[in-house]
Design a protein that fits this description.
mainly beta, 4-stranded antiparallel β-sheet, single chain, disordered C terminus, 9 strands
């Protein structure tokens, strides 16, 4: 006779993500440039001197920010190549990446267009000067990507690049123990 005890723990975390990219305007309000996780601001573009794409890495199981990095490919076009931004997003697929743009998001980004579209579901080839975009994604799962873009300043001012997303993190812990009892011949 064999007894099997199985302990199973399932933890589900709901992570509400709000993203608001920067739209260049002399009347821009700095509080409108942010990323929040469950209502808590984890990144702000206020006073950020860095143009380009900002990537925030989060743990979806805890709804927490792990790290962030800015890619100012306006002044440093090499960051859009393999050794820069591409190597940064080539990471563990269990993390979620949030992208938010500040100021001119498309200058010198062309080398990265293919990777954004193919592996991340983000198509920004048509974004023009002073446009903006934002995304929430899990690398190699483009079908899960939430993406918004404003192709020009007018669309940006109207909030077209802002997004809201909900990511559910599920953590399953199975503990197995097996006991053998009463074997006889």
């Amino acid at each position: 006779m064999e007894d099997i005890d199985i302990d199973c723990f399932v933890v589900t975390v709901i992570c509400r993500i709000e993203v608001s990219p920067f739209c260049y305007d002399s009347d821009s309000i700095c509080n409108d440039v942010y990323v929040t996780l469950n209502g808590v601001k984890v990144w702000s573009g206020c006073g950020s001197p860095t143009r380009g794409l900002h990537i925030i890495v989060i743990n979806p199981f805890k709804c927490t920010k792990l790290e962030s990095r800015a890619f100012n490919y306006y002044e440093h076009p090499e960051l859009a190549r393999e050794e820069g931004i591409q190597s940064y997003v080539d990471r563990d697929t269990s993390v979620v990446l949030i992208g938010v743009t500040v100021d001119d998001p498309i200058e010198n980004l062309a080398p990265f267009y293919y990777k954004l579209k193919r592996y991340m579901g983000v198509s920004v080839e048509d974004v023009k000067y002073r446009g903006a975009f934002s995304f929430v994604l899990q690398r190699d799962y483009p079908e899960k990507t939430v993406f918004r873009k404003a192709i020009d300043l007018d669309q940006c001012k109207n909030g077209q690049a802002r997004l809201s997303a909900v990511v559910a993190g599920i953590n399953i812990d199975l503990s197995h123990s097996t006991h053998t009892v009463g074997w006889s011949n």
